[in-house]
Amino acid sequence: xxxxxxSQKGGCGKSTTAVNISAELxxxxxxxxxxxxxxxxxxxxxxxxxxxxxALAKVHCVQKYDNxxxxxxDLNTRYEYVVVDAAGRDSRELRxxxxxxxxxxxxxxxxxxxxxTLSNMQEIxxxxxxxxxxxxxxxxxxxxxxxxxxxxxxxxxECLIDYPEIKLLSTMxxxxxxxxxxxxxxxxxxxxxxxKAKAEIKKLVEEIL
Length: 209
Known about the structure:
The protein is α/β, with parallel strands linked by helices. The protein is about 40% helix and about 20% strand.
């Protein structure tokens, strides 16, 4: 199965989502490859740090840019799960990846600049579905405030009504420092002592699969 994480905007937790999904699937005993298709190399750097700890569940990693379709289809014959981190913009990697993926996850922060990108994202999804009609598309609210008196996510959920091609997940990823700490050590939050963050990722993987 090919799971593509892509968005029209950087800074929305795209790479964080990709590596945590990869680690959770690997921790469940699945054979996983992480494809870093973003030239910033955040996911690849995480995978490199992870190799230094042989006690962690194995996540293979490759880097591929430009037209990634054939690479994803080939990897899908070799691994149970192919998790792809595409660049945070309207990129060739994102568009070609969507023609091969089984699932597209669109992470976005509950903020107006992120919500403003969804209209163009929906148009790209519609075009991709002309070539890949079985593509499932999910919207994921990321970096949501942990303060209970801030209700930005409610506004974001209402906004998604205007984008029927993007099915909003019930799972939300909150803005927690543990996600940043885990990234710097090649870890997933499911491998750290933060039950709330761990529950978010486990619920996310359960919901998309």
